Amino acid sequence: MRTIDETGHRRRVQLLAPLAHRDFRILWLGMSTSLLGDGVLLVALAWQVYTLTGSPGGMSAVGVALAAPQFALVLLGGVASDRLDRRRVMIASDLVRGACLAVLSALALTGELRLWQLIAVAAVYGGASGFFPPAFEAIVPTLVPAHQLVEANALDQFVRTAALQIGGTAVGGLLVAAAGPGGAFAFDALTFLFSVSCVLRIRPLPASGPDRKPSVWADLRAGIRYVRSQTWLWGTLASAALAYLLFLGPTEVLLPYVVKQLLHGSATELGAVLACGGATAVLTALLIGQTGLPRRFITFMYTTWTLATLAVAGYGLATSSWQLALVCAAVNGLETAGIVAWGTAKQRLVPARLLGRVSSVDWFVSISLVPLSYALTAPVAAAIGARRTLIGAGTIGSALTLAFLFLPGMRTVERDPPAHTPASRGQSPQQRQEAPP
Length: 437
Fold this sequence. Notes:
The protein is mainly alpha-helical. The protein has 17 helices and 2 strands. Strands 1-2 form a two-stranded antiparallel sheet. The chain is globular, with a radius of gyration of 21 Å.
C-alpha cells in the first residue's frame, strides 16, 4: 500500500520521520516513558485487586471508578485543550495521576491498602485522565507537518504498544513479583514526573482559538454540532460505544481472572500474555508507518476493528496461557491498524480549532457505556461463566461493529474528503486560528 498526501501525490512513508521535529521528539520521549509505567500499572492493579478480593466483582468496581470520572470530565478536557495552553493541560493531568499512584504505593507498601481506598484513588486518577487525551491528540498536528500525520500516528501506536503492552507489562510482572504492587505503583508515579519534565521543554504554542473566546458551553456546543454534521464521526462514535459496552469490561476484568483463577497462572504469565499482544501491535504500527493507509481508510478501519472484536471470543475458548497469548496478539494487532486510521482521519479532516473538542466528544461517546460494561461483567460472568461471557462479547460485538460500516454516508469521505486541511507545523498562528469550520 501507499499513502496519499494532501497534494494528491503518492509517497513512501517513513515511520521515524516525525522525530526530526524537536518538540514532537520530546513529546514522544515523555509519552514513551509514561506508557511504560502504564503497562506496569495494568499488571499491578489487576494483581492488587485480585489479591484483595479474589473475584471479578472487585475488578469491576475499580474499572467503574476509573472510567466513570473520565467519562464525566473528558468533554471539559476537550474545551480546556482548545482554550488553554495544551502543554499545561497535559502537565496538570500527569501531576494529578502521579500523585494518585504515589498514594497507592505508600498504602500498599505499608500494608494499609483496602479496596475502598483503591476505588477512591482510582476515581481521582480517572478524572485527571479525562484531560490528557484531547490535549495530546490536538497538539500533535501543531508539532509535525500535515503530510506526516500517518507516520506520527503509526509511531504513536508503535510506542504505545511497545512501551505499554510489551515493555510495561513484562516489567510490571517482574516488579510485582519482586516488590509487590506497591513497588510497581511507585515506578509508574516516577514515569509521570519524567513525562512532565519533557512536556515542560516543548516550546509554548499560541492559543488555538481567537482572542475573544465564547463561553465554555458555546465552545462545547460547536464541537458537538460539528460531530453531528459528519456521519463518519458520529457513526463511528456510536459504533465504538456499543462495541466497548460488549467487550471492554469483559476483556479487562476477565482476562486476568482467566489467567489467575482458572488457569492458575502467575503475574509474570499475565504480563507475557499482554506483551504478546503488544508485539503484534508494534509490528502492525511499523507496517502501516512504512506502507501508509489505503485510500478506502474507513472500510479498512471497520474491517480491522470487526476482526479484532471477533477475536475477543478467543479469550473464552483458550485453555492455556500460550493460546491466550495468540488471541491477544490478534486482538491488539488488528485493533492497532484501525486506531492508526482513525487518529489520522480525525487530524486530517477535522478543522484544527475544533480538534480538541472533537477528540473529547470522541472519548466521551466512546467510553460512555464503559462504566456499565464494567458493572455488568461480574454479574453476567457469575450467571453464565467467564468463558461464555468473553465468547458472547466477541461475537455480538463484531457483528454490531460491521453493521455500522453500511450506515448511509459512512464512506462518503473516502470519495469526497473535506477541502480544508488541519493546522500543522509551518502554518502561522493566524492561519491556524482562521481554519474554516
